[in-house]
Design goal:
This protein is mostly helical. It has 2 domains: 235 residues, no CATH class; 49 residues, no CATH class. The protein is built from 12 helices and 8 strands. 25% of the residues are buried. The chain binds 2-acetamido-2-deoxy-beta-D-glucopyranose (5 copies). The site of one 2-acetamido-2-deoxy-beta-D-glucopyranose (NAG) has 6 residues, from loops. One of its GO terms (molecular function) is signaling receptor activity.
């Protein structure tokens, strides 16, 4: 009877353990935090690269190939044939910001929480309302506001032919300051509308340029939680971009802990049951009534230390009475014996 109950409990525990394991390595969740846009130049899977030229911040984990990275900063061919200098040659200080933005767009594997479908000839997905740090947007705007353009949004505003992008009829080249109202309007519109939402720096926000570990990993994790795209409780402190996606690591640790607890509980149960059975059979065979068990035990101990004592031959009840007297002489003889 008890064996049946125990084994069914074991099956139940194993089932729970399996659920934890499956939950911890949910593929969809890790995809959100480490994925590439479906687009003309993006890799299908993120991964490390040997050389990314001006996009080297993304070397450790990147959606762009070295080929794409080689051309992100240039006008015209070969990537999209987009001419940044369509009104006037773009200054280097401004171009650096567009280059950083292009690296971010082409290389970042951490845009998962903001990817939405979009049917264009050159992509099936776009990023939508990515929270861009206000400080990054302001720097971009400060270095570019004196450039000029003829369209507000550069992904849909131009007229295109084989030689690239051109200003549509009835448009004129104007300084950015006359096309855009302010920094936020510029950052949110130039590649948009709504690629970015400019976000105060004290909130979780994405950086287009950085040195060292990629700060956007943590930001993506935060928003994935907030949008219920993944399960979890808190944003962990930042660590190196993981080889194993962070959720899987967490899941594994969780599973190991739960697994260990289950195994310990099962072993404890088995030992408990085993002991109970062993004792049961022992006393059954010797035919000693339960209430004499303590007496038997104490008499054994006493018999061991007072081997030469003739009292060892006394009955249980008599011997116990003598012990209660706490005889100092007897203690002395004990020491000598030892
Ligand atoms: C890109 O890397 C591959 C090897 O991974 C190499 O063969 C190729 O020449 C590189 N291309 C550029 C533009 O660096
Ligand atoms: C970009 O456009 C300007 C103005 O039309 C033109 O002078 C320049 O040659 C173009 N650059 C490229 C690489 O197409
Ligand atoms: C893009 O900008 C052009 C003019 O600059 C405007 O006519 C068009 O409606 C804009 N498109 C979107 C989707 O906002
Ligand atoms: C920037 O301009 C937009 C209008 O395009 C406006 O809605 C927004 O409030 C302005 N932001 C700031 C900070 O002035
Ligand atoms: C890439 O990772 C290595 C160690 O894993 C680290 O030393 C290096 O600084 C990282 N590079 C970047 C650009 O984060």
């Amino acid at each position: 009877m008890f064996t049946v109950r125990l084994s069914s409990m074991f099956v139940l525990l194993c089932f729970l353990y399996t659920c934890v394991l499956v939950d911890g390595s949910d593929k969809k969740e890790t995809d959100v935090l480490n994925t590439c846009l479906s687009s003309k130049h993006h890799k299908t899977q993120p991964g490390p690269e040997d050389n990314l030229f001006k996009c080297s911040a993304w070397l450790n984990n990147s959606c762009c190939t070295n080929y794409t990275a080689q051309y992100v900063h240039g006008d015209g061919q070969p990537l999209y044939n987009l001419n940044f200098s369509h009104c006037a040659p773009m200054s280097d200080k401004c171009r650096n910001h567009f280059t950083n933005n292009n690296c971010f767009y082409e290389c970042s594997p951490y845009l998962g929480p903001w990817i939405t479908p979009q049917k264009l000839s050159y992509r099936h997905e776009r990023m939508y309302k990515v929270p861009l740090c206000a400080s990054q947007c302001n720097a971009w705007w400060q270095d570019c506001k004196d450039e000029s353009t003829c369209v507000e949004n550069w992904s849909t505003g131009f007229k295109w032919d084989k030689s690239g992008n051109h200003c549509p009829r009835n448009t004129v080249c104007r300084p950015f300051t006359s096309v855009y109202h302010n920094a936020s309007h510029f950052c949110e519109t130039v590649w948009g509308p709504d690629d970015f939402v400019v976000t105060p720096d004290h909130n979780y926000c994405m950086k287009l340029s950085f040195t060292g570990p990629n700060p956007n990993v943590e930001v993506a994790y935060h928003y994935a939680l907030k949008k219920h795209l993944i399960k979890g409780t808190a944003v962990p402190p930042y660590s190196e971009p993981p080889k194993i996606p962070p959720l899987q690591v967490q899941g594994t640790i969780f599973s190991v802990v739960i697994g260990s607890i289950i195994i310990i509980v099962v072993i404890a149960l088995l030992i408990f049951v085993g002991l109970k059975r062993y004792r049961g059979t022992l006393f059954h065979h010797q035919g000693v009534p339960m209430r004499f068990r303590n007496l038997l035990r104490s008499s054994r101990q006493s018999a061991m230390v007072t081997r030469s004592d003739p009292g060892a031959e006394m009955s249980f009840m008599q011997y116990e009475e003598e012990e209660e007297e706490d005889n100092p002489e007897m203690n002395g003889s004990l020491r000598l014996d030892l």
